[in-house]
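Lecture notes, continued. The same structure-token format from the folding unit now serves as the input rather than the output. Read the line below as a description of shape only.
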């Protein structure tokens, strides 16, 4: 369970709202203290009907939890999403997904991909596509998001840039 403590107001809020004995992992809070992001396998919305991990954003002003890891063709990905990180203004969230049905053209086992969701516009970007618009040939990890929504991550994929022949993981900036 994730709690946020407002020291000035002497108030504590349960932002994860877990009620079905689910697990909450991988949390982050925006620099302005308004948005908390986390991954959970609890069903926090009526549209969530599986036990896969999903990423949620909890706005402390509303206070409402919004599922961030919904995709147009896969509202409930069969494999989980995790490791959310939020920018300082609470408007953009980066996270990982290993689901095989969220990127067009994928099927079966896929690498772990990085996605960025803009909460204001609802636009979601797949940031780990290759330079030739092919699917990545390796997984990506540890996204970190800047104020303007740029994302840094490391990847074992060799086809994210032209001419990459590295046998080790590289750091990328999108």
């Amino acid at each position: 369970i994730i709690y946020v403590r407002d020291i000035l107001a002497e108030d504590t809020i349960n932002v994860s709202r877990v009620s079905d004995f689910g697990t909450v992992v991988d949390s982050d809070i925006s620099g302005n203290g308004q948005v908390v992001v986390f991954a959970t396998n609890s069903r926090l919305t009526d549209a969530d009907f599986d036990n896969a991990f999903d990423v949620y954003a909890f706005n402390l002003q509303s206070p409402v939890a919004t599922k961030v890891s919904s995709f147009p063709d896969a509202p409930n990905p069969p494999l989980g999403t995790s490791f959310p990180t939020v920018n300082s203004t609470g408007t953009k969230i980066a996270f990982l997904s290993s689901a095989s049905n969220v990127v067009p053209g994928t099927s079966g086992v896929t690498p772990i991909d990085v996605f960025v969701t803009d909460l204001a516009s609802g636009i979601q970007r797949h940031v780990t596509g290759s330079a030739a618009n092919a699917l990545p040939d390796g997984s990506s990890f540890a996204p970190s998001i800047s104020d303007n929504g740029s994302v840094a991550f490391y990847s074992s994929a060799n086809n994210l840039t032209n001419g990459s022949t590295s046998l080790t993981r590289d750091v990328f900036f999108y």
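Point for the exam: The radius of gyration is 16 Å.
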